[in-house]
Request: fold
Amino acid sequence: MSAGKYDQRIRLERAIRVDDGFTSAGAATWQPIATVWAEAVPVRDGEKIAAGQVIATSMYRFKVRHSSKVADLGPADRIVFKGRVYDIAGIKPGPDRNREVEITAVAEVSA
Reply:
């Protein structure tokens, strides 16, 4: 695993519920978990139809070094990459299970 392929910075975020005084669940506010170096590989661009509108999407596979910061990431967390928010669609160990994690994430792309 060469250090050179981890050439992009991504921010990992987690929703934290804060009492908003209105709902029992509270309002979600996004808090940074960590900013890490990653390899960012575009997987596909596409479109989906939702509520009668065509919405463009962008999917990336992010590879990061395994650490305590990424050990408990899940689909409720998100990634911010180049100013765009990516929802986590899947997480799996990389080829070297103890050293790398692969995260697949999707963003809606506005026109």
In short: The radius of gyration is 16 Å.
